[in-house]
Amino acid sequence: MKVTVVGAGAVGASCAEYIAIKNFASEVVLLDIKEGYAEGKAMDLMQTASLNGFDTKITGVTNDYSKTAGSDICVITSGIPRKPGMTREELIGINAGIVKDVSSNLVKNSPKTIIIVVSNPMDTMAYLVHKTSGLDKNKIIGMGGALDSARFKYRLAEALDAPISDVDGMVIGGHSDTGMVPLTRLATRNSVPVSKFISEERLNQVMEDTKVGGATLTKLLGTSAWYAPGAAVSALVQAIACDQKKMFPCSVMLDGEYGMKDICIGAPVILGRNGIEKIVELELNDAEKAHMKESAEGVRSVNDLLEL
Ligand SMILES: NC(=O)c1ccc[n+]([C@@H]2O[C@H](COP(=O)([O-])OP(=O)(O)OC[C@H]3O[C@@H](n4cnc5c(N)ncnc54)[C@H](O)[C@@H]3O)[C@@H](O)[C@H]2O)c1
Fold first, then answer.
1. Does 2-142 match 146-304 in CATH topology?
2. What pLDDT was estimated at residue 74?
3. How many CB atoms lie within 10 A of CB 242?
4. Fold of 2-142
5. Cβ(75) to ligand 1 under 6 A?
6. What digits encode the pLDDT tens for the residues 238-266?
7. Ligand 1: which residue has its CA nearest to atom 6?
8. Does the annotation mark 175 as catalytic?
9. Is the CB of 141 under 6 A from ligand 1?
């Protein structure tokens, strides 16, 4: 199992670290455009191997795609992150060019690869890879909902004063401050609806805190977060590599599901060795449907900025 991670910055390196620590991949190639940067990150990470007990071989390369050849899974984290006060959508001008170029180089060297898109604005970047890479639709996965759901569970556990392992919940919709649809109605504590434990007002607060989860961290850190994004990507990579058939909300190209077509947006999917093996259609209520529709309009307005 060979995994390439493009972009050896904060998220790329964190993702490589979690993949290595979980010890399921034989090889991780880190690639960055900055001279020597990926090589340095790879060497530093390899020097944690004897301490953290993993055998995954991590190598770093400067823009040399021949070293990524034969990758089973490629992760795209290259591009600029947002600064405090910025929206993810504002990154499109720079990141669209980078993501298009990177995905074409990856597919040239690994025609059978599965691509996980992380760079923002992620739903639009996933759409761009669909339109330009020539890969089958089950092989292009946008990572956003797995992270947003982890943040949702963190906020739910906080509100319930419960351990995170007691709570479950999912965020679908667009990966943006306004587009996320945290499914509060379906969130549970050990299969009991969370509304049994907290007021509607507190639950609405959980929803709002979840939606601005990334912005809150960007304000604190001065740049966007990396631990939870890296962990979320590594969970998707592991689900595919180990054929786990796990369900995650991911940005997926819809073709009629949820009443939408020709859009990449967050919906629950089953991930296994073939990438997206199934899109799970939930019965949404009217408010959730309206929220999804509004979210899709936001994603489409960013997609319209692409020069395809
Ligand atoms: N989808 C999500 O949930 C999620 C979460 C966090 C961050 N992000 C996004 O991930 C991206 C990376 O964030 P980060 O914090 O790691 O940024 P970063 O600046 O730390 O790292 C980005 C890296 O990409 C490299 N790069 C730029 N152009 C490249 C190219 N053409 N080829 C190869 N490498 C190139 C840079 O040299 C840099 O090392 C951003 O767009 C950010 O918004 C997405």
1. no
2. 98
3. 16
4. Rossmann fold (3.40.50)
5. no
6. 999 999 999 999 999 999 999 999 999 99
7. 229
8. yes
9. no
Q: Where are the domains of the chain?
A: 2-142, 146-304
Taking the C-alpha atoms of residue 102 and residue 277, their distance in angstroms, rounded to an integer, is: 25
Helix axes 37-46, 10-22, angle to 10 degrees: 30
pTM, two decimal places? 0.98
Nearest residue (by CA) to ligand 1, atom 1, is 118
Q: Phi and psi at residue 278, in whole multiples of 5°? A: -165, 145
Is residue 79 in contact with ligand 1, taking CB distance under 6 Å?
A: yes
What is the rounded average pLDDT for all residues in the chain?
A: 97
Class of CATH domain 146-304: alpha beta
What's the rounded mean pLDDT across residues 206-222?
Answer: 97
Q: What CA–CA distance (Å, rounded) separates 24 from 2?
A: 10
With cut-offs at 50, 70 and 90, classify the pLDDT of residue 89.
confident
| CA quadruple 232, 234, 239, 240: dihedral, nearest 10 | 120
SS (H, E, C) the chain: CEEEEECCCHHHHHHHHHHHHHCCCCEEEEEECCCCHHHHHHHHHHCCHHHHCCCCEEEEEECCHHHHCCCCEEEECCCCCCCCCCCHHHHHHHHHHHHHHHHHHHHHHCCCCEEEECCCCHHHHHHHHHHHHCCCHHHEEECCHHHHHHHHHHHHHHHHCCCHHHEECCEEECCCCCCEEECHHHCEECCEEHHHCCCHHHHHHHHHHHHCHHHHHHHHHCCCCCHHHHHHHHHHHHHHHCCCCEEEEEEEEEECHHHCEEEEEEEEEEEECCEEEEECCCCCCHHHHHHHHHHHHHHHHHHCCCCC
Query: Given 153, 175, 211, 291, which residue is catalytic?
Result: 175
